[in-house]
Specification:
This protein is α+β, with helices and mostly antiparallel strands. It is built from 14 helices and 16 strands.
Length: 387
């Protein structure tokens, strides 16, 4: 047995990449702090019933489960941090006003997600609680775009959807949770023949509206206009379309590098969204680099209804796609006993320089560092010289 082998789709993060990930994490969390977001760090393990409260079956399937030897209860190794942060807002902070929280922590998936090559991610995200208006959704999108910009990814394609449209179409149908989750899969795959067969037991207008969703995707103005003609008149649907229209108009002003579209059948995620949903794409990746949206019902599941919106992404994927240079320029110094050399090195490090001591005649061999200067003794003083 090769003791150095890791489980399938689990990988080490090696020096240069790890430094890049950490640099981005610091820069992004500082960005969130500038907007007033407070950092939280939920535990990686929780009782399973708490971890899955208010979520769909797909999160349950992705969660590793084990038995707690102290209590005998089933624990879950988190596959998503968002429900944990909702629990913190609902029960530990218990604030009445708007609360902004952010986080960065590891999550694990029992199965490799579609389009991914890893079962472990470093999930980073930001959430806004206590604000039910569209301005909170716009702030979440704004912060997502700035996050990608920090990583050097300027060209972004943002795809919008709204969970309220499907809720309006199915209003009064009394479908159970498992049936609706099966419907999500059919809509996401845009499998019209199977969807048509699945909807055969529903009223004709409902079935027609569900089939129409699979074709309502593309440029925002065209989709909104077609949706108003095609979809049934319902208060929830009208509100959802109005929300999207207003958000599209405001989001379009955020960046000249942003391309907006709408896909009303895109209901991917962990099935806890209740309003506007969005997915961000970049050229280098076939699947979304980030997902977000409104999920007001998760707090309700914890016994304290709170409007909520936010987004999350995998920081490891973001770092891999980032064009920013991870290697840092450093100064080499001889590894000898010299009090004056030690003083000079200490001063340089206080000034923010990286100084690496090496044996005389050796070279710096480190993936995340590039040595472009060295400390050289000139007469009785040590000076930094270009190599």
């Amino acid at each position: 047995m090769n003791r150095w082998l890791l489980p399938e789709d689990i990988a080490d993060v090696l020096p240069a990449e790890a430094r890049k990930v950490e640099s981005l994490r610091r820069a992004i969390l500082d960005l969130y702090q500038s907007y007033g977001y407070e950092l939280v760090a939920p535990p990686i393990l929780e009782f399973l019933d708490s971890l899955l409260t208010g979520t769909g079956s797909d999160l349950n399937l992705q969660t590793f489960k084990l038995v707690d030897q102290l209590s005998g209860r089933t624990l879950g190794l988190r596959a998503d941090i968002t429900p944990q942060v909702a629990r913190i807002d609902a029960h530990l902070l218990n604030r009445a006003g708007v609360t902004r929280l952010c986080y960065a922590g590891s999550v694990a998936h029992a199965r490799t997600p579609v389009g991914s090559s890893a079962r472990e991610e470093l999930q980073l995200g930001a959430e806004i609680y206590g604000c039910a208006t569209w301005e909170a959704d716009l702030e979440a999108i704004t912060l997502l775009l700035k996050t990608l910009s920090v990583a050097g990814l300027e060209k972004v394609y943002l795809d919008l959807s709204h969970a309220g449209i499907l809720a309006g179409i199915l209003d009064g149908q009394n479908l159970d949770k498992e049936t609706i989750e099966a419907l999500y899969g059919l809509l996401q795959s845009k499998d019209r023949p199977r969807l048509n067969k699945w909807a055969a037991c529903l009223p004709a207008k409902v079935a027609e509206a569900l089939l129409a969703l699979t074709e309502l995707n593309g440029p925002c103005a065209d989709v909104l206009a077609q949706a108003r003609k095609t979809l049934p008149k319902h208060a929830a649907i009208d509100k959802a379309l109005a929300d999207l229209e207003r958000l599209v108009a405001a989001t379009a002003k955020l960046s000249t590098h942003l391309e907006l579209s709408i896909d009303l059948a895109d209901l991917r995620g962990y099935q806890y969204h209740s309003g506007v949903m969005f997915a961000a794409y970049v050229d280098q990746l076939p699947q979304p680099i980030a997902r977000g949206g409104r999920y007001d019902h998760v707090g309700q599941a914890f016994g304290r209804p709170r409007p909520a919106t936010g987004f999350s992404l995998d920081l490891l994927t973001l770092a891999n796609l980032s064009p920013l240079n991870a290697r840092k320029m450093v100064i080499s110094a001889p590894w000898i006993e010299d009090a004056e050399l030690d003083r000079v090195i200490a001063t340089l490090r206080i000034q923010g320089e990286v100084v690496i001591q090496i044996p005389v005649g050796a070279t710096v061999d480190a993936a995340e560092y590039q040595c472009d200067r060295e400390l050289v003794k000139q007469a009785s003083t040590w000076e930094v010289k270009k190599k």
